Every structure is written in structure tokens, then in C-alpha cells.
Please model this.
Amino acid sequence: MSLKAGGIVILDYGSQTAQLIARRVRELGVYAALLPYTSTREHAQAEAPDFRGVILSGSPSGIYEPNAPTLPAWVLASGLPVLGICYGMQLVTKAFGGEVGRADRREYGQATIQVSDSARLFAGMDAAQTVWMSHGDRIERPPEGFTVLARTDNAPYAAIARPERDLFAVQFHPEVTHTAHGLDILRNFVIGVCDAQTDWTPANFIDATIQSIREQVGDGRVLLGMSGGVDSSVAGELIHRAVGDQLVPVFVNHGMLRQHEPDDVIALGENLAWNLVAVDATEEFLDNLYGVSEPEAKRKIIGRTFTEVFEREAQKQGELDWLAQGTIYPDVIESAGTGRPGAKRIKSHHNVGGLPEQFKARLVEPLRDLFKDEVREVGTALGLPDAIIWRQPFPGPGLGVRCIGEITWERLEILRAADHIFISELRAAGLLREGTAQAFAMLLPVRSVGVMGDDRTYDEVIALRAVTTTDFMTADWARLDHDLLARVSNRIVNEVKGVNRVLYDISTKPPATIEWE
Ligand code: XMP
Model:
């Protein structure tokens, strides 16, 4: 039986927190598929076989807007339990003839609900609950046959239900942590009302995935681009456990990795008993980048060279049948959505190079059902080291986009040494896993005058960047302790020859981006 059977379908109406609903449901051990609200029942059935209930997400749209997203007829016709959240509540209200009022202002922030009916959805909870509200329109009159479960001073219909039909709707957001008992509410719905299966665990995932990789690849050989990041490491280990040395992992060192990183990746491959093919292509990359300092040109050259090296190495390995990719669930959701027509390209991202033509239809994507935190859980269950599991994101072009201006081996070495000091100090202060989402050094294309002993210096400038963020779409600069910054600065100017000045970047994203190039 499929591990995804007996779960929940979440229809995505575009709310910022729609993915969070799926993650919370999965925390309960229940598989949740997040699908566009336009999905047919057949599609939902294919993505989540034998699903036991439907959750309708919130939305940035108002229900009275022209072309407002609608509720597909199959949802109510299915007779399955439904939980409408925010906009989802308005859809349910409208569908049954209740009244949704236009708001003249948004209600946003914490509120206290008074629960008047603690059966089912609010079972086992106190009457007064802290919840998180973020809505414009609100329910003026619930539909005929619906009862009120909870109210706030501002929203007389904070939660409503038609219990005998297993229909529930809440104005607030149970998926966010600001709603104190949000997970309990979701549990009551998903397990209490829907009776969903609770088989979605890392151990079950590993067993099922190993089995399905074996079925998929048979005795074929699988090429994997190994970067040393959590996704390629976990994907590789799943494939290795499934088909052993049919896995051909290729690690390309482009010369723009951090201190000790190439050795660490090679050591990991050895520990996992993979036949890792390690290629040092530093010279080729630096030759191609010689004299180039324009950011997009650098990115394009790095991407192109990566593809060339990777394909060349792959060819040396003989017959290869499959290409493994570390695609994860948010990528799948993104490509299933409506896309972002007209969105401008800010940076041309590069990961493991392009897709060699012969693999177009032959992809192995063992992580395509997982959120990032689930990849980490699976990695931990596979016994991968914490340093890999909790490695901060590192861009494909590596230090190439942090060595601002021209890239030379000497400048890369300066940057590597400074970055290593910064990261070591953050690690010692316990700020790598929590406290910063991403932290790194950059080398600027500027020199400045300084004084060392009795001598004048005219040396390079290092900029430090540390940010806090959950989604990397927006970010704030980390409020690092001044003494910590002082120690890092001191060590860099003393230990890294050629640097006499250290800056700390205090820009938010937007308007800045996280990387400078
Ligand atoms: P920006 O600079 O756009 O970065 O705010 C957002 C996040 O994306 C990472 N990043 C990349 N990751 N390939 C990647 O895999 C890339 O080419 C790339 N460029 C930026 C960046 O480090 C940050 O986490």
C-alpha cells in the first residue's frame, strides 16, 4: 500500500501559509498533498490515494473580487470532511448560502477566541484560546444548519461547523505557531474527524522510497551530482541503500568552495562507502572566469563550465541510465502553480548544471514529496552527520558570487580564510543552527588605507553578512553581539594577510538581496 494513502488534500488558494498547513499535518504523521484549487478529484486521488478529508487554505484574494478563486464542486459532492481556513471558511459559507461581509479594514494579529462547543474540533482544549487572525472579509451570517463553535469580540463567527456533515470552518490560522493550540486543532480534524492514516514517518518513508527506487531503476545506473548539501547527500544515500554501486555520484570541485569543503565531501563519500567520483576542475573554472567581474557573466560562465565538466565526467563513467535530482516538494508545488508571469529575473540561479539531453525522461527524484525539514529528518534517520543535515544553504556558484569583482585564486584564498574565521566564531557561539539562517563573508573590490604597527597599508576589505529568514524571500540582518563582531574583525585583520578592514552588512531583503551578486 502506498505510504501516501489515507492522507489529506489541501487546496491551495494562494495564502502565504498554505505550505505551512501541509507541514503541520505531516508533523502529525499524516501525508498531506498541497494542490492547486483548480485540481480535479482524479488529480487529487492520484496525488493522495484514498484521501480522507480536504482542507481549504486562505488566500490573498477577496471572495467578491472578479475572478475570485472558487470551490470545485467535487469537494462538497465527495461527502468527505472539510476544514475551511480563512478564505476557505468564506468559500464554505458562500457555498451553503451564508453571508460574507466586506471588511473595511483587515484584522491582523493575535486574538482570543471563546470556545462555546468543545466537541471534536476543539476537543480537550480550554475555552479561551489565543489564535492568529489575518483576514479582510468576514462571516456576517453563517449558513442555515451551521452552529457557532467559537467567537472573538471582533468576530462573532470565529469558528463554525455542521458537525453531522463533518464540515468545519475557522476564521483564524491554526497552521501558524502564534495560534497556541493550532496543531491540536489540526490533529482533531485530521485524525479525530477524518480518521487519516498516521504512517507518514521518516522510517516508513525510507523503506518505501528504497523499494520504489529499486522498482524504478531496476539494474540501471544512476548519475548523481553530489554537492555536499543536505539534498544531494540524502538523495544519494537513499539511492545507494536501494541499488548500491549502481549509484554513480560525481562531485565537481569548482575551486570556489569554502575552507575544507572538498575534503569534507570526499570524506563523507568514503564514510558512506559510495564510489564517489571527485573531480578537481578548479583550473578550468578559473581560466574561464579570468578577467570577468560582471555578476551575471560570472554566473553564466560558472553554470556553463559546470555543465561541461559534469557531462564530460559522466561520459567517462560508461553507460548511465538515470539522473538523480534533489527536487523537493516546494519545487513541485511551485511548478504546479500558476507560475509568476512577468516576474523579472534578478539572478540566474545555478545548481547542478543543466539536464543532459538523454536524461530528460529518466529522472530519479527521491525527495520530491518532502519539505526541507522532512529531508533533514530523513537524513538524520539515515545517520548522516549533523554538519551535513544542518549545513546552511550555499549557492551553486559558491564563493564566485562572494568574491565581488574579479575572481583569482589569491582572492579566493583570502575570502576562504576570512569566511572560515567568521563561521568558526558563529559556530562557537551556537549561532549557526539557530540565530542565523545564512552567514558568510564577502571580499569587496575595494582597497582602503590602514595602519599596522608604524606602516601604512593599502589592503582588501571583507564584508560580513548574517541574516535571519525562514523562506529566503525576505530576510533581516542578524543582530549579532558587538563583542562577537569585534572578535571576528580582530581575528580577520590579524590572521588574514592582505585584509585591513571589516564591514558588517545591515541591509534587509528587500531591497537588498542576501548575496551581493
Ligand atoms: P538572494 O541573493 O537572491 O538569495 O537573496 C536567496 C537565496 O538563494 C541562494 N542563492 C543560490 N542558490 N544557486 C543556489 O542554489 C544559486 O545560483 C544561488 N544564488 C543565490 C542564496 O545563497 C540565498 O540562500
Remarks:
- The first strand starts at residue 8 and ends at 12.
- The chain has a mean pLDDT of 94.
